[in-house]
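Suppose you are handed a protein chain with no further information: no name, no annotation, nothing but its sequence. What can you learn? This example shows the usual starting point.
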Amino acid sequence: MSFNQHDVQSPNEMMVDADEYVSVTDESEKESIAIISPDTLDSEADQLQDLPLATDHDAMRELILPPLAEEPKVLEDVVNTWSIQSWRSLNKREQGPVFQAGSYPWRVLLFPYGNNVDQCSIYLEHGFEKPADIPENWSCCVQFALVLSNPNDPRLYIHHVAHHRFTKEEADWGFTRFYELRKMFNVPFEGATRPLCENDMATITAYVRVVEDETGVLWHNFTNYDSKKETGYVGLKNQGATCYLNSLLQSLYFTNAFRKAIYGIPTEHEDSLSNSAYTLQRLFYQLQTSDAAVGTNELTKSFGWETRHIFEQQDVQELSRKLMERMEEKMKGTPAERVLPEMFSGKIKTYISCVNVDYESSRIEDFWDIQLNVSGNKNLLESFEDYIQVEKMEGENQYYAGDEHKLQDANKGVIFTSFPDVLHLQLKRFEYDIQRDMMMKINDRYEFPEVFDAAPYLSEDADRSVSWTYQLHGVLVHSGDLNAGHYYAFLKPNKDGWFYRYDDDKVTRATMREVLEENFGGEFRTANGAYLRAPLQKKAPAMRQNSAYMLVYIRQSRLDKILCPVTEDDIPRHLRSKVEEESALREARRKEREEQHLYIGVKVITEETFRHHGGTDLAVFDAGPQSEDAAAPRFYRVLRSMSMEQLVEIVAKDLNQAPQNVRFWVMVNRQNKTVRPDQPIMDLSPTVEETFQRASAHRDQILRLWAEVAEETTAEGNAIWPTHEPHDNGIVVKNDLILVFLKHFDVEAQTLRGVSHVYISREKKVEELVPLIMKKMGWGDKLPAEDKIFLFEEIKPSMIEVLKPKQTLKGAELQDGDIICFQRSVDRKTDRNYLEKRLGLNEKQSTEDLTKKSDRCEDARDYYDFLHNKKTVKFHPHPTRTNNEKFPPFELDLNSKITYDVLAERVAEYIGWQPTHLRFWTVNASTGNPRTPVKRGPNQTLQSILNPTGFNHLSTTQRSDAFYFEVLEMSLAELDTKKSVKISWLSEGITKEEPYDILVPKNGNIEDLIQALVNKAEIPDEAEDGRIRVYESSQNKFYRELSREYPVISLNEYTGLFAERVPEEELKADEGHFIPVFHFQNEPQRTHGIPFKFLLIEGEKFSDTKKRLEKRTGLKGKSFEKIKIAVVRRSQFSKAQYLNDDDVLWDVATDDDSLGLDHVDRTRTMRNGAGDMFLR
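A reasonable first move is to predict its three-dimensional structure. Written in structure tokens, the prediction is:
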């Protein structure tokens, strides 16, 4: 006999088989079958002893239906047996007898010859006869086992177990590879003398356990799941790795008093998406009113986060603190100014209290959250005891209690004087493992209660008139390890009722087991305390990967205040109206997209748009529908079913013309990629769609037309058209006139503009166009003798040909829609130096003349060449090397063929500087920062500089349309002899940092650097204002002070460089009396800020040292009071030893120690290639 025992975490572990059920030929039998195969299962010798018989149903149930990890309530257990008398006579698909379980019908589905496999396939399915019999939204959660046994010898059997949520769509579930057919018949079963299927007889027993679906989502596949419909709440979309942000935001949102306070921030005059308070208001409003998951893009953009921040998981505690700080700033000066501190901030006292004398040194500080140790503690209460644990200061570690009491035994520790209404507890799940030399996640079991009393952790003099009992409101969970993981939250929106799981965009009800037990961490446990074990680890229990890392408790006496209702009246009116407007606009756009197939865009060129056009062709068709460019074609969005006659009426009305005096010409794409009028539309009865389809090939779904307005009309007001005039019999006659468009190139103004259109016979000569041009331009009847008009045909942007005056238009191959450009200029023969000027052969020309003429076009062909190669380039002053007030950003239209020198001349001419004293920098496409300086080369062109060889948008980070420019005080040639040094000038302690890029001769030293800094920063020199010291920092720690003789060529580019005045008290101090000072946040490894060196004074109490330190740093008032100061050993992972006012730093610190200032990092410095989290 044999059986298969699943010794796994979820006791139904099996594989889903990808094979489809393809062997059914009867159409009525083609049903969807869920196909599953069990894992390769093992059995051990000790498990084969004393096994129950297949007929002992109670014992079998205990064996084959192990406890479920979810521990749902069992509603009913049912056993049903189906006896099969003639297996090999069965149909390929058989259904067993219907039986009832959980008030629903069930039956076994059997494929005796395999469901497209070489094993028999057995499933459990619901027994509803017709789909109409299935209740609406029916589901039933079932754990079941199927047993195939020998009816003559019940010791011989095989079983498989599974659980499933049965629905109308997933009506069956089971095992495709239940048992191999070749082993079933005439082959002794494992360890026995008889086959499993003996005499073609077998028994299939179904053990069906119906369990309660308490949350409505037990074993749910979440296909088409609607969070709002099922729970009344919506989730937040994950942008990439923002699940940690989503869990925190949901927690704050359901702290109703916080949401109300956020709504109270006045933003009606700051409703910009760069205002984080306004975007948070919008997010909360959308969570309150939306029917679908809400995005956080607006909020993260208002934080100033870039794409890389979105894909980096950040520290939730740090994010929470910074968000609170930012919102607290926004609430200053408003009625809600004290709301956040009163809601989230408590007070803690750090003390040293003498045992034998009445002396105590203490300070009381605010806290916004509490960090509790997980390691070494079994539960929350033990962590609190650990937190307030008293340290005995006795023996060699006695406390110096001043001159009066000298050394005394003392107790040192912390105690809470008050807790906030909303208590945020940060569980320290991540700690440094000194043996592995890395941070590790602590997965130890750590329990926390639904309710706890915080009174035991308060000081004796704390106010206990109101209970300090706290109730669990939220559990923020991390699943995974240090390097990869996922965050979600369990929150209780109301005082009474359910907890809900907020997992990004999905919200589901949660049981208290899910909230508590499943987030304690440690080993998986069942209800009876037994451990669930992983399949391949028979001895070691399976460990949970998910555990709580942040807990939110609310004081029970303040529950009604904190979870107060947030009504529509609490939402700012301007916010409501703005979001509703945007929602209506989105809905209109959605409707427009849905109806888009009914409409078509029409772009119409008119005489007016042509006159404003300054480029090639008749218009720029790429202009958008909302373009305000006067040269852009007029855009109309019309129904495809509209008749052309109706369209003419619409356009004629815009042109203030009678409809009969306007006719359309269809624009076509010529083979040379130009778009020109082809022929007029004489029949206006077809629809716009039909006209569009009849036109030649299209680049997009846009009908392009030219609207011609009649210049002559009959006495009745009807148009007289020069060509294609319809006769009374309906026949359209084409004469020999052709339609030609005229453009004027103004040599002096260096402009090209459309003029008008003319009709002229193809038999006439080119020179006969001149009188028509004179009339259109208003130049009179005759040109002066010294003037001449030159004519060119614009064949395509890169092909402009001169027209011969004596040639006929037919000979020049001109046709309808062609463009002729003309220019009026002095006859070239009268200008002797014209050719020399064009070719640059006149040696007497000054450099200034060459500069002025370098980009001037003398005839239309040159100007067309300029247009063809024109590139609009943006120029920005270098952010750190050029004064942006004196030299603001600008744009220039340049020929991409110009050389580096001509580029420098054009920019120098624009900003009023010397071209030799300019340097250009390429722009990093991803960050927008300066990339590399451009090297001057004799063969370089603007095109090759902006688009280096091999350039494409995938392989480079360089922008192809912008430069930074640097205004130099010396020529580029001289610049090559200098070294650029980045140094920060500290003018007010460390509070004011002014960065400078300074050029120092490569053979210079620190003395030269200091003199250059004095000149660049325009500060008094050393003789006038005192000695200047220059020092280096590394990883935000003081590295070394540099001597005056130190060569600048040896400066390390990877260290920070600072310069400051030497304080008077330090001028004659011994070098051995200094201690390096650095800044950190919480952990000494998290350094930030500007380090410096500080003078120690022998015997000075730390209370006096702090006063000097405050003066030395320049930090004043509350900014300095918030800083905790500690001595930090050189060891990389040493703990900070925090100092008290009565300590003497001279005695405490050793030569290898540093002084650490512990405070929040408000900088945005880049570390290890990634930026610290910041909120703009």
